[in-house]
Amino acid sequence: MDTADLPFLTVTELQRRLRARELTPREVVDTLAARIEAVDPAIHAYLSTDLDQARRDADAADVSLPLGGVPIAIKDVISVAGQPCGCASHILDGYVAPYDATCIARLRAAGAIPFGRLNMDEFAMGSSTENSSKGATLNPWDTTRVPGGSSGGSAASVAARTAFASLGTDTGGSIRQPAALCGVVGLKPSYGRISRYGLVAFASSLDQVGPFTKTVEDAARLLGVMSGLDPHDSTTLDAPVPDYAALLTGDIKGLKLGLPKEYFISGIDPQVEAAVRAAVDHYTKLGAEIVEVSLPHTEYAVAVYYIVATAEASANLARFDGVRYGHRARDTSGLLDFYGKTRAEGFGPEVKRRIILGTYVLSSGYHDAYYLQAQKVRTLIRKDFEDAFQTVDALICPTSPVPAFKLGEHTQNPLAMYLQDIFTIAANLAGVCGVSLPCGFAQVDGKDLPIGLQLLGPSFDEARLLQIAHAYEQTTDWHTRRPS
Amino acid sequence: MKYLTTIGLEVHVQLKTRSKMFCACAVEYGAGPNAHTCPTCLGLPGALPVMNQHALELTTLTGLMLDCAIAPYCKFDRKNYFYPDMPKNYQISQYDLPICVGGAVPLHDLAYPKDAQKSIATPDKKVGLVRIHLEEDVAKSFHYDTSTGVDFNRAGTPLMEIVTEPEIGSPEEAFAFLSSLRQILLYGGVSDADMEKGQLRCDCNVSVRPEGQAEFGSKIEIKNMNTVSGVRKALAYEVQRQTAELEGGRKLQQETRRWDDASAQTFLMRTKENAHDYRYFPDPDLMPVRTETLVTTARAGMPELPSAKRARFVDQYGVSGYDAAVLADDQDLSAYFEAAAAKAAKPKAIVNWVLNDLLSAVSSAGKGMRECPLPPQALTELVDLIDAGKISGKQGKEVFAEMFGSGKGAATIVKEKGLEQLSDTGTLEALVDQVIAANPKPVADFKAGNPAPLNFLKGQVMKLSKGQANPVVTSEILQRKLTAGEGPGGV
Ligand SMILES: [Zn+2]
Is A234 a catalytic residue? Predict the structure, then answer.
């Protein structure tokens, strides 16, 4: 059969064809392999693939399963048994995960085939994927620009149609921001919705796994498969997992959407603001009611985030010491020297910066002023969201203040880079769910650059959030456009 | 000048759980290196801890046994420092919200070293506790010529830390504290608490100050003692060393020292300047723990404590305070005693048998009370036979030895050996008459006022009865018959 259009299919359509026997899982893997070979060298979304295993998995696939025979690419921070899990860091060179993360085990049980490792900012620290020790990933819409980060490979692979769907992780916007910059759907579930077991921790109280897809419906399918209580992760919640895809009715009449005034600030790109405001108008036409709301502690979110996240990271990354796995320094004298050289050689500059910052804010004498204070403000930020969700069903705002920026544009200015996540960070601090979906394009230097619309919903109300996103998507065609 | 000693202890106790603190790996000693490991206890990237409920229950039980306040909720924190025996380079522990707060360990006399039991400075002392918290143990390093191996079997096993107030006044009191604590832990089934196996480890803080000085002297920590006697020795050495320093006009600094058993000395490990900043913060991987149901469960499993058992033995069985303490010292021994005493006519008689004959027989057989071949009911039977005059005390010892060896019942052995004592007065009177008739000379001597032949005559009756005559009854009959003839109107 003709497989030319195969890479452009959604997961849902791919499954339909697999079940109708119009395609075999083997053909899917072969076609995808060819597509990766042809396209990925210009994008560099993939760090590695295991296509031989993927072909074996495809031959054994049961297409009647919820994701039977669907290949899924995985961010290099999630453990897949037998595959490298390097977090795009030198310090994990040579490390192969001996076990499956819970989300991977659930994908496999649903028939999906995890086959490739996707590039990212080292240890998920960054907003451009330039912090990868394996080289940057490029934005498929304009290869002089970044795909966003830290899940840049996950977003770029779906945008470049070298993956039907992928997994990323979101600690401060690392799913939503690259999804926006690459023009795909990126879902950050509520904290505790998907198990973190097997996800290499950056900031344990903020990290969440989530899907990158071409459509909201595909995101709903992946979410449903991966969600739920996990005995290996005590921060997962025993909340019911609805059939998210079945709840996508398209009807959002009477729902209330909140426009947080703190999210429409000066410094936001005018084309981004115009696209988001147009999306808001579109929602009015769909029957939603728009009200302005306030999240008064928003301005502290970035500061709180860089204390909480770095503090947790300083402990989480302590285990990478060369003693048991990964890179180890040669010619060292004594234990301290061994630790020092191994970590100096193994970690990149941004990771070091954050470990040092995190160590500092937890140090005796500073702990109360920084870490404790940040926790208090975090509680206020969480309360902002709770209050807002008393009156509205979801919040609507931009995902990123700007479209994709140039490679190297912010690498010398960490603070400017940190501000890329200004609209996404608060959701992680509050633990709520969020999604970014395409809502237009900005014309920059003669190129079309995607713009992302962010919707934020109450914790564990992904069903409503996806329903709202889906209604917009089904009445617009931004999501159907793809880079040339 | 006189000096005062102040000691505080930090005791680490390995809990008796089937699995580790935060993963499902078995807690088992003697397995091959790294046999009991998984992604979590190896600290592999992405692995997460999950709380062992049983460890929480055992710690709560310990808190109740030691009269601590159980916090309504507690949390777990990360204690950050780098060392190869710590796979994550942080230890999950409890910092500012431990499970148990306060409490005390009552010291009992027998818990002191034998040579110090006669001179206990403050009898009935209770050593106050600051707190008890739960944490994970680290791995074990093995140092070779050019390399070091790490065995992670122990990594992540549940460890309870008990911190005392600085209220211990001497090395002997420290010894008594550890022995008393250990006994309570064994009673609760919380730990096997064997110091030599590392199931109970102890760090000591000791300071010395001149009498009359209000503030404590410089706190010096000692590590690496592997027995309770080692703790006493190390503390005695350290008190002497510190006193000598002060007397020599030198100042003491806060520091950590290592006890070396072989040379019986302490050596400097690190001074305060090198103290760690552990950068504690709440572990985001674990939810805070509400203790309400833990307390209910633990309360239901509360054992009778050693002090209560000692008092009850005195009350219920009329045994001496000392005997009660010896019995209560070992749960198996006290259980044995109670089983034997419960149906005994004279429970008090059981104590002597248990503490003397039984204990020495068991120990010379190289066994523990648990493997004692003699069931408690058998001992009751034996003691009752003696008490009822069926066999003599001396025969009792013989029967006991036979019972211990063969496992046969006392009555069976008595019958088989024909040991049953002759107490029937009719038969005995006939034997006495026979002996009196056959020995006119000693009889005459006795009647002439010499008491000595009485024993000879008694012996003759015993001989005639093949040793079965009840000696008490025999004496009575002999005396009656011999003096009866002296009355007026006699022969
Ligand atoms: Zn384990």
Answer: no
SS3 content of chain B, % helix, strand, coil (to 5): 45, 20, 40
- Residue B390 carries which DSSP code? S
For residues B287 and B290, what is the distance between their CA atoms, to the nearest angstrom? 9
Higher pLDDT, B25 or B409: B25
For residues B259 and B220, the answer to whether their CB atoms sit within 8 Å is no
Single-letter amino acid, residue B418: G
DSSP conformation class of A310: H
**Do B168 and B99 fall within a single domain?**
yes
Minimal Cβ distance to B284: which of A197, A204, A325? A204
For residue A434, the model assigns a pLDDT of: 98
Alpha helices in A207-269 (DSSP H): 216-226
* Residue B490 within a domain: no
Per-residue pLDDT tens over the stretch B411-463: 788 777 767 776 677 788 888 888 888 888 888 888 888 888 888 888 888 88
Nearest to B426 by CA among B377, B461, B477, B382: B477
Residues 6+ apart with CB under 8 A from A367: A361, B279, B281
Cα(B36) to centroid of ligand 1, in Å? 6
**Residue A1's pLDDT is what?**
57
The catalytic residue among A150, A166, A195, A227 is: A150
Q: Does B284 touch chain A (CB under 8 A)?
A: yes
Please return the burial class of A272, using the count of CB atoms within 10 Å of its CB with bins 0-12, 13-18 and 19+: buried
Number of domain units in chain A: 1
**Tokens representing residue B427 in the block:** 């038969």
At A163 the three-state DSSP class reads coil
- Across the interface, of A85, A233, A312, the residue whose CB is closest to B45 is A85
ipTM score here?
0.96
Residue where the block lists tokens 């000879």: B456
Task: Read off the pLDDT of each residue in B326-347 and give the average, rounded to a whole number.
Answer: 90
Residues 6+ apart with CB under 8 A from A39: A160, A161, A162
Rounded distance from Cα A314 to ligand 1 centre (Å) = 23
pLDDT of residue B490: 37
Single-letter residue type at B279: R
Taking the C-alpha atoms of residue B157 and residue B87, their distance in angstroms, rounded to an integer, is 13
The yes-or-no answer on residue A174 being catalytic is yes
The pLDDT value given to residue B488 = 45
Is residue A57 within 8 Å of A81, Cβ to Cβ? no
A150 prior amide bond cis, ω within 30 = yes
Whether B386 and B476 share a structural domain: no
Q: Cβ(B84)–Cβ(B148) under 8 Å?
A: yes
Q: By residue range, what is the domain housing residue A129?
A: 6-255
Q: Residues B309, B273: one domain?
A: no
Q: Which residue has the higher pLDDT, A291 or B489?
A: A291
Could you read off the pLDDT of A263-303 as tens digits, one per residue?
987 789 999 999 999 999 999 999 999 999 999 999 999 99
